[in-house]
C-alpha cells in the first residue's frame, strides 16, 4: 500500500492525519516544489492482457496539455494528448505493420474527439504528482467505458491546426485523421470551417461498406474497428480533511477507459487486426 500526496504549499494541512491518509489512499506520491513547467511521470501499469508497461505521463502547464504514452505488448505505441485549451483529445496508435503481407513498417492511426476537461485531473495538478515507489505496478481504481465512437468524418490535416495546434505534431505520420459527426457539429458551431471535415465515404452513391472482419478482398473498402485501452490515468482529485477549515487536495483517483473507434478504410489491407474479430 502506498500513499499519494501533494506536498506542502499545495495544502497547508498535508502533513496532518497521515495515518488516516494511509488507509484511504492507494498510491504514494510526494510533492516537490515544481519550478519546471513541463514534467514527466513514469509509472508501471498492468495492461488488459496482463503485461506490464511503463507509461509516461507528461504535463505541460503552460500549454495546458497532458500527454499519456505507452507501448502495448504487441509493439503498438499509444499516445493520447489532452488539449485543455481547445478541449480536444487526440489519440494516436502506431501499429506495427506486417511487411510480408505487403504492409508498411507501421501504420499511424489518428482519432480526434472532444475533451471534457473533467475527464482528467487539471494540468497543474498533474505536473505536481510524484510517486515515491516507482516499482509498484498500478491498476486503476475505477474502470470507465467502453466508449463506442463512430469516426465517420475525415479531418484535413493541413487545416487541422485550427482545431488544435498539437494535431500536426501527434498525427503528422498518419495518412488520415478521423472524427465523429457529433464533434464536427460542436466545432463548426464554435466557428471552425466545415471545409476541413469530409464525411466518409465521400461519394453518396457508394453503399455503406461491410465491416472489415467480414470483407473478403484485401483491396475492398470496409468499416474498420480499432480498440484502444488507456489502463491507468489520474481522473479525479481526492480531497482530505485536516484540522483546517477546508479540505485540501491530498491525492488522486485513477481510472482506466477503453474506446472502440470505427472508421472507413479504403482497403481491408489497412485493417488486418480486425480479421479475427
Ligand atoms: C486540405 O486542405 C488543403 C488546404 O485548404 C487543400 O489544398 C487540400 O486539397 C485539402 N485536402 C483534401 C484531401 O481535401
From TrEMBL:
<dbReference type="InterPro" id="IPR053897">
    <property type="entry name" value="Oaf_C"/>
</dbReference>
<dbReference type="InterPro" id="IPR026315">
    <property type="entry name" value="Oaf"/>
</dbReference>
<dbReference type="Pfam" id="PF22873">
    <property type="entry name" value="OAF_C"/>
</dbReference>
<comment type="similarity">
    <text>Belongs to the OAF family.</text>
</comment>
<protein>
    <recommendedName>
        <fullName>Out at first protein homolog</fullName>
    </recommendedName>
</protein>
<keyword id="KW-0812">Transmembrane</keyword>
<dbReference type="Pfam" id="PF14941">
    <property type="entry name" value="OAF_N"/>
</dbReference>
<keyword id="KW-0472">Membrane</keyword>
<keyword id="KW-1133">Transmembrane helix</keyword>
<feature type="transmembrane region" description="Helical">
    <location>
        <begin position="20"/>
        <end position="38"/>
    </location>
</feature>
<feature type="domain" description="Out at first protein BRICHOS-like">
    <location>
        <begin position="40"/>
        <end position="187"/>
    </location>
</feature>
<feature type="domain" description="Out at first C-terminal">
    <location>
        <begin position="212"/>
        <end position="275"/>
    </location>
</feature>
<dbReference type="InterPro" id="IPR053894">
    <property type="entry name" value="OAF_N"/>
</dbReference>
